[in-house]
Every structure is written in structure tokens, then in C-alpha cells.
Amino acid sequence: MPVILIFNYIEAFKRKRLVQQRMNFIVPYKQFFIPELMMAFSEVNQTKPNEDIRFTPMAQLLTIYWLLSKNEDEQIEQVPFNKIANLFDTNAMAITRAADNLANLNICTIHTGRPKCLTFNQSKQNTWSIIKERQLGIYPILKTVFTDSKPPHDKWINTNTNALTAFTDINSGYQQYLALDKAAYQAYKKTNQWPQENTSEGEFATEIWKYDPTILSNRFRWLKNNIDPISLYLCFTNDEDERIEDALEQIEKKFIWLEE
């Protein structure tokens, strides 16, 4: 009688080794390999479980760009991924992963021709409603650090209440808020160009962002070196200050517009 090893779970590389050694084994719902009886089955086309519950940083950036873009701006729908990558200063693989995230969340559809492209499934208004209802947007800030001197950087982006002032009637406070992506921050830290920082106070408050805040500023000149209004909205979603809540309502009315 043949001897058959049965595993509830075994790593893929170990299964491959057993196959190479022509060992009889079964992993339920995964692989059935009994060469002694000339039988071999495996679940080749296993469906990937939908584990995405929120946007990834790049997926959020793509969605915000689409929501804010006008007809005269460069489009990202029905455009090859490598062209989108050039627009966002990244690589095609990063766009592919972002598109997969959006597709898993049923925000977009990926068209798998040559080349790949995507289209959003709903109107901009409906997409925004879905983002809010399902809480798909991520808080875009990793952390905030304070310094007494202005950190080195070529192009600073205003954020927090400094940027809210540009889009709403809220008054800016005394604190100066700046936004910087994490890669640039880490580079400055690594080369010892970053000034002494602390976590509580300082003349300059620098928010370290999960995605590059300069990308949209470079694409939409009307932002004028401010964080885009939708990212700002996601920064303040849980703020209970009545002035902030009123400012967020103004952003929705002004930028999450009635369809053209």
C-alpha cells in the first residue's frame, strides 16, 4: 500500500521539494500529488481573497487626481499604466499595485489588454460618496515633527490650517505647517541635513506624508503650493472642532462638485 503524507498546511517551497523528490502527499484544497498512482492535482487558479479594506497611498493619490482633474488636465482613464507612472513620477509596477487595490475595492475596472488601463466604475460624486460611506480613505500623515528652523527643501507645500485658509474662510493659526513626503524626510535625516526636531513644539511643524504632496501641486497649478483639498479633508475627518467641520463642508461643496 502506498504511504501518503497529509499536511493541513505546508509552505509552497516545501511542497515543491516534495514534488522534486516524488513523495506522495496531500494538502487539502491546495495540492494532491501521488506519483506512485500517477495522480497529481493542484489549485492553479485559486482566486485571491479580497483583503483590501482601504486605499493604499498610491491608490488614494490616483483617486484624488481623478476626482480633481478637469477635461484640460492629463487623464488617467484608458491610459497605459506606464504613461500614468510618468505622470506620477513612479514606475508601472507601483501603478499596477494601486490599480489592483482600487479594483479589489470595486472603485475601478482594470482592462487587461495590451497595454493595461483602467476606468473608474462610478461618477465622481458617487465615488466620493462611496469613499465616505465605506471609509476607504486613509489618514495621509505618518507623523508631525517640530523644528525651530525651517528644514531644507526646494519646494514646500502648505498643509493643515495654513492650506485650509486657501480653500475656505477659516483663519490660519500662528503655527506654520509644511508637508513633506517620507522619502525626502528620510534622505535629509540620513545625510544629517535635518535640523534638531521634537514632537511637541517649534516654529515649523512638518507633516511627514505617506505619498508625495508635491505631485498634485505640480499637476494642478491652482493649488498654489497647498495640499490638495481632498487630502486635507481626509486629514480632518475625525476633527470635532465646529470651525473645522464647517470648513470641510465648504470643501465638499466647492470641490466635490455637481457633475459637469
Structure in words:
It is a single chain. The protein contains 10 helices and 11 strands. It has 260 residues and is an alpha+beta fold. The strands form 3 sheets. Strands 8-9-11-7-10 form a 5-stranded mixed sheet. α2 packs across α4 and α3 crosses α4.
List the defining traits of the structure above.
260 residues; alpha+beta; 11 strands; elongated
The low-confidence parts are none
Q: Largest sheet, order of strands side by side?
A: 8-9-11-7-10
What structural class is derived from the secondary structure elements? alpha+beta
Report the C-alpha radius of gyration, rounded.
24 Å
Number of strands: 11
Order of helices and strands: EHEEEHHHEEHEEHEHEEHHH
Number of separate helices: 10
Helix-strand blueprint:
Blueprint (H helix, E strand, L loop, with lengths): L4 E2 L5 H9 L4 E3 L3 E4 L4 E4 L14 H12 L12 H7 L4 H13 L3 E4 L5 E4 L3 H11 L6 E7 L9 E2 L1 H8 L8 E6 H9 L6 E2 L5 E6 L4 H6 L9 H7 L6 H14 L5
Parallel strand pairs: 1-2, 9-11
Antiparallel strand pairs: 2-3, 3-4, 5-6, 7-10, 7-11, 8-9
